[in-house]
Here is the input.
Amino acid sequence: MPHSAADLLEVTGLAKRFSGGGIGDVSLSVPARSITGFIGANGAGKSTTLRCVLGLIRPDAGDIRLFGAPADAARRNRIGFLPEERGLFPHERARDAIAFHGRLKGLDRRDALTRADRLLDRVGLGSRRRDRLESLSKGNVQRVQVLCALVHEPELLLLDEPLSGLDPVGQAEMLSLIAEFRGRGGAVLFSTHSMAAAENICDRVVMLSAGRTVFEGALADAAALAPHGAIVVTSDAEGLAAAAAAVGGKASPLGSTSAEAMRWRVVLPRQVPHPALVRALADRSVPLLNFQPIRAGLEGAFWQLERSEAA
Amino acid sequence: MTSPLWLIAERELRTYVATASFWAALAIGPLAALALAAFAGGHPPVAVTIQAAGEDLAKSARAAVEEAARLEGRSLDVGQSGSRLRIRPLGRNTLEISFTPDFPLSRAGRMLVERTLERDAARRLADSAPVAVETGALAPRGPGTAGVARFASVCILWLTLTGSLGMLLQAVVRERANRALESLLAAARPWEIVAGKLAGVGAVSLLVLAVWLGSAAGLSVLLPSDSGASLILTRLAAPAALARAALIYLLAYAFYGSITIAVGALARDVAAAQNLSRPMFVVLLIAFFVTMSWTSGSGASWLAFVPAFTPFLLLVSDPGAYSPAIQAVLLAILLAGAMITASFAASCLSISRPRIGDVVAKIFARAPVRFKTHVPEN
Here is the structure.
């Protein structure tokens, strides 16, 4: 995939093999002032890719360029990173935790503390700057975590599952912070399982499957990959297969073997409307426990790409 | 810009200092010293009276009582009131000695008074010339104050080490388990993290040790200058001995601390870390017992060349046991051991760390270690 000169991060043909997994061929780019969603199933290689970008793991093959040049320690210092599992010290005060990360990135003590105070004010935690993290709510700790990644004013933010473990309010706050960072001119690459969140905030998406990039492009292009069809829950597998075949579609089980499956994904030709499938099911007296049309969105596209990769 | 090493050290220190339990542990030393001081020096003199027939007998009884009281650490005020000691001659060869039940001497103290009076009476009866006593010096049968001081320094090293290693293990496992290490590794090199953690936790231990030893030194001021405890503390505080002990402590902490960090980095969680660290603590225990056997003179001298034992045996041995050259060699061995273990710890801390199985396989294969990469699952 061609990358533009304005890409802050360019990864090409990245590979890293290790016992039990790894990545085989990952390519992606993060343009300036963009939010790129990094989507893939568990074990697809998202965290491994991020670790390679950060220099925590040396890749077996591939090329990583940061800010238009080969990645090195100085350029990596211009990245803000939020790991998947957060590890702040509970006894630490909020401003000290943020300042510590700033100083690790080269800020002097006074500057780091000033910035920490400013950031805490910005997210409404100014009055709690001297509180120990153990006394803050999980959502507030998460915000402090993001501020740790932001304190040295990075140009590129790498977020590994920033929404995991957050309630809807916390997720909304996190997405606001990410959007705000982009609004100030930064670029973001964030890995997530939440398709809804990615649809809400991303300009672009990169999808990974089994350690390979299977899609990279605009959100709308990804959504268009979603198949036309429905998710059907029924106990009559044979009846469902027959009904799907009758309207030119195909049923395949979701997350279980065919013999025991209750939940099916039926892909229909674009010209066949959903009611046609419902009629075919009714004609065969197939008991329907649930029927949900597949939405033209990231989730549908994700399933489609996962399935094609598995095939 | 501050080096990540010092930032990490400062953070470790701040983390421990911020806990109430740390201050509680810190306060135990001074509180114990205060309690001992209060116990030793807080009692007012107890009034006693001595009734004896004859001036000689009264003088002798008073000296005996005062000596027994001094040995028992009691302060008595001999006068005309208080608990009573009565000494009556019953014939030429018999003395009746009676204490009131509340007389402030133990059974042993009272017996000492009785034997002293008996001796003095016998001397008077024999009309013997006073015995001249000259002070001489005999080699102590036990280890003596110097030996006790050396053994005390081993005990302090052992206690400090086991305490610090526990803290270090916790500090590494915590960050390994919640992957906070990734944040650190994104900004600092593994050896900086190893050194930072060693320095931070070491500073915590040093602080506790300093307060405890300071309390002991303060207590020694309250003790009589010729008491055993005071002599031991004086020997411990001798500048040359202190500098030598500090160097040995530092190297021992770096050696065992690095092993602990490696163990913490190889473990998945606290339970695994505790299991993995068990052999190291067993070695520490063996080192302690080996050191004890040395104090009774039955140690094997070659053991001092094994880094795990070096610090303990160097501390406990008589200064003349090793020539300066040998001592330098031993310290160099310990330093080399610390550097090797620190380097191993740094390699374990990196994300592409060795797996325990690989390490064991390589040890038994006796092949050059080349680790497979293990990356935590996404």
In short: The first strand of chain B starts at residue 46 and ends at 52.
